[in-house]
Amino acid sequence: MKRAFSIKRIIVLFILVSGLISFGHNLLADNIYELRKLTEDEWLSMSTEDRLRALSTTTRHAEDQAFLGDFGRHYDLYKKWGYEYYEMDDRYENYSFRNFEPYNIIEERRKRWTYNEFGDRITKMVESFRVWSDRFYQDGQWRALGPSGYINQFGTTDGVWVARESTSDWSVSVIGAGALRTNFTPLTLAIPNMNGISIDFQSANTTGKFISSVLVTSGSNMLGHVNEGGVMLRGGRFRRKFGALTLGTTYVTTYGVQGNRDKGREWRGTVNNFTPTPMMVAVRFEDDSPQDGVGGPIVYNIRLRINGKYRDDVQPQIIMDNLALDRTSAITNKIDNAYIEPTSQVVFGFPAFDYFSIGNTPLMKYSDYNYLNDLMKGNNVTNVAANFSKSLSNSYFNITEFGSKPLQADGNECIVCIFDLASITETLRSVEAVTTVANDYRIQTAMIYA
């Protein structure tokens, strides 16, 4: 009897001790601060279920923390892309979001495109990539293509390509990007998001920079400059130190190209295959520093040269206008005066900043000028009276001409010279305006085509 009683007491004691250990583990698993006190041996003695419960406790504690900056802990995109395509963050790999289901890290990584067969992280590349491409063909054709195929590119998302090489004496870098900040000088080039390439060289006394961009093109394959014509931007800057003296030069040009035509890539520019015939040519003179209100352009004369010959029989209509009224029209017809707010030339997918916008390349207010011309000459009286305000035009515009004194425009004032080419019967191959101008000036041109 005593032996049986002793055995029974031992069994009861064993069950009690086991229950206390299990209960203790349960208590520990529910308290993050007690979990931190566990020794390595105590962790090893825990069952798998207890370990998972403890890990769950730590995860819940982490989610309830208040902190600034998540350090990559909550970049859990698996809900959107699924487990197989979830790309782990390099800084912290947290598998707790998968509810601690059994997993094999190496095997899982083999299934993901961001890891090789050994489970090592690799970079996802597209089939091909390009920093820049200029191709010249034997038949005289040419094409240029900007950067593409960025790392981990998705859709039209842009990126950056960087290649660098340096020694103790010099360094060179090649950067291609969809939005490349490019700044030479305020009067030559300053674009915050050029889509193109920049090559930079630097040594102890010499710096150099070359840029190239396909500014305007069309077509889904970005080869519109080949078939339909486009605009290229090229430029460079060079500086050299001679003791305390630094000398340098800057060159920037934008020029029209036609890639499927011989000599259609020359930097002097060319017209494209679909160039219409110009009907009117406008030259605008404005103050290059309008904020001071003085010292604007003084225009002495302007002559038209067509096909290399001066045509003094074609005299301009001269209108004094105001730059502050570039968005203001004397046209009362709301449909007609919408032309002063043209749609952007930048297609969907390009950077939001529009450096082709009217703000940088002002649109000639041709419709107002045509109505004003009809008003002064007494033409289309009914149409002018119905759609054009004479009182507003008198406050906006002033028609003038060259006399004994030159014309001057200060501040927001500007001088617009409009040449009507309707009387010219010969084929137009080139149209140039030759002028004599002084002071702080800026000259802009515009055309109306047939």
Write up this protein.
The chain is of the alpha+beta class and 450 residues long. The chain has ten helices and 17 strands. The chain has a six-stranded antiparallel beta sheet with strand order 3-4-5-6-7-8. The protein has a five-stranded antiparallel beta sheet with strand order 13-12-15-9-17. A hairpin with a 2-residue loop joins strand 10 and strand 11. The radius of gyration is 36 Å and the shape is elongated.
SSE arrangement, N to C: HHHHHHEEEEEEHEEEEEEHHHEEEEE
> Which stretches are low in confidence, meaning pLDDT under 50 for 5 or more residues running?
1-29, 67-95, 109-113, 346-360
Fraction of residues in β-strands: 25-35%
Tell me the span between the first and last alpha carbons: 122 Å
What's the number of helices?
10
Strand order in space, largest sheet: 3-4-5-6-7-8
Notable traits:
450 residues; alpha+beta; 6-stranded antiparallel beta sheet; 10 helices; 17 strands; 30% strand; elongated
Describe the structure concisely.
21% of the residues lie in helices and 30% in strands.
Give the topology, please.
Blueprint: H1 2-29, H2 32-35, H3 40-45, H4 48-63, H5 78-81, H6 105-110, E1 133-136, E2 142-145, E3 160-166, E4 170-183, E5 190-203, E6 206-216, H7 224-227, E7 230-242, E8 245-257, E9 278-287, E10 298-306, E11 309-310, E12 317-322, H8 366-377, H9 381-387, H10 390-396, E13 398-400, E14 407-408, E15 413-420, E16 431-438, E17 441-449
Antiparallel strand pairs: 1-2, 3-4, 4-5, 5-6, 6-7, 7-8, 9-15, 9-17, 10-11, 10-14, 10-16, 12-13, 12-15
